Amino acid sequence: MISAEKEILPILNQQELYTVEPTHLHVASSDIVETIDVNVFYGDFHALKDVNLAIKKNSVTALIGPSGCGKTTFLRLLNRMNDYIPSHMVRGKVLINGVDIYRDKIEIEQLRKEVGMVFQKPNPFPKSIFENVAYGLRIQGIKDKHLIHERVINAIQQVGLWNEVKDNLRKNALALSGGQQQRVCIARTLAVEPDIILMDEPTSALDPISTSRIEELILQLKQKYTIIIVTHNMQQASRISDTTAFFYLGELIEVGKTTDIFTNPRNERTERYITGRFG
Amino acid sequence: MLILSDKMKKRKIIEFSIEKLLLASSLISILTTGGIIIVLTIEGVAFFKEVSVIDFLTDTEWTPLFTQKHFGILPLLSGTILTSFIAIAVALPIGLSIAVFLSEYSSVRFRELIKPVLELLAAVPTVIYGFFALIVVTPFLQKLIPGMSSFNSLSAGLVMGIMIIPYVSSLSQDALLAVPSSLREASYGMGATRLQTSVKVMIPAASSGIIVSVILAISRAVGETMIVAIAAGQQPRLTLNPLVPVETITAYIVQVSLGDVPHGSLEYRTIFAAGITLFVFTLILNNISYWFKRKYQEKYE
Ligand SMILES: Nc1ncnc2c1ncn2[C@@H]1O[C@H](COP(=O)(O)OP(=O)(O)OP(=O)(O)O)[C@@H](O)[C@H]1O
Ligand SMILES: [Mg+2]
Questions:
Q1: Which ligand has the minimum distance to the alpha carbon of residue A250?
Q2: Is the CB of A231 under 6 A from ligand 1?
Q3: Distance (Å, whole) CA A242 – CA B264
């Protein structure tokens, strides 16, 4: 582990940090992600409204809610993936490890190494399995062949793909099945050893067996990583997550322990949604 | 009822004639192509009855208009290859950079704005490029490179390279934009910069389209006539020296077509021999591009 490299917080920002109001200092708390009064706009469209959400280290958080309610928008807020959309605008604070990623001077590339992302549709590069997983290391400029080899193999083992691909790591990743491709994509993210992994409906394009494999994997990954996952599948949310957050029309309606949300929701709209009685 | 059927009759006649008209126009283009091939073959066969194919392919001199006649195509071929090579050496890096910039860096607005400007490069009459090479580029280069002839393949190639930039940039840009943006996102999501994303993901993923664009640009350069006829000289010479006059296949064809060689003579038939060579050359380029496409698709599917 290269902990110096992994530090999001550039020295020059620490000073700024102490000038922030004390309530917003969360370096010592176990909240690895915290959003404070976050509003997101696409042009005139108000996509997220005053979202306040704190996420604990080494937990799995499920984001649920009907289509178009802002789950993806929230997820992509956390690694600034929406920066490329010209009309996208953020107000409020998004703290990751205590750093305001929209206001403090941060390196966006560094942020994304710490906040990895797995997409809905498996999107391996048209390269070999090995090169896919090594990609993040190569772009960091790591040249050490042994280190790359070790990390790649380690990542492939972590996603439980080793026995399936060990004999043809040089095979094109696009030749794998959808479920295997998605696990390559997860391995690719793990290889750079992020703190947080964002997953946007990672199993919605997969068959049930691949899905349960990835669910098991998520439960294992929890030991080392903080995982935030968008899902439309209520069973999936209850199986794998510790915390569930319900979004509706851009608002965070309710957030709490998954068991509570599913057995005893406080908000009526949450209840209607999880019981499938939503219009 | 009577009026209606009259109308319908009229419409049927119109439709019938339009259909025949369309058929006729497509026939014309097919007949023209067929005609060209037939004429090339007939005159070519006549030529190769008098000159052996071996001489044609191995003789290092091309002097059909002199008393001491030689019919080696190599000097013309080398002139064509040399000027085209210089042109593509200019157009590939510049055209690809433009394509990457427009697809990966610039805003959609700027992309739309710059497109017609770039395409203008290919729309300038080539005779203007020719004179530009002859009276601007060559004198300028002569200051830098003493001993350079007034006619040379370097300035002709450079200027031709500028002309074919849009061929490379526009098709390469299309190829880059056709790469699924999920790959771009995956790369950015790993913490890659724009440059890393372009070089390590986008260009490799678009390589088949980029190669095809380059081959198309080469075909264009090989067939280009005016620029080389004006600026590269009219002296067939087997050389790779870019500073001396050379003659390309196309320039030779112009030279003889404009001259006063008698119809049906051997000198006249050299045009067709040169034409066949050009035709075969372009055909080979097309096949290479086809082969690359196939190879790429096998690799990535
Ligand atoms: N690039 C964009 N420009 C404008 N509006 C957008 C853009 N992206 C998303 N939106 C809008 O923002 C809202 C939230 O979208 P988002 O993708 O976050 O929803 P979601 O909860 O992920 O939905 P789904 O479950 O269907 O994936 C939607 O109404 C959508 O139309
Ligand atoms: Mg979504």
A1: 1
A2: no
A3: 91
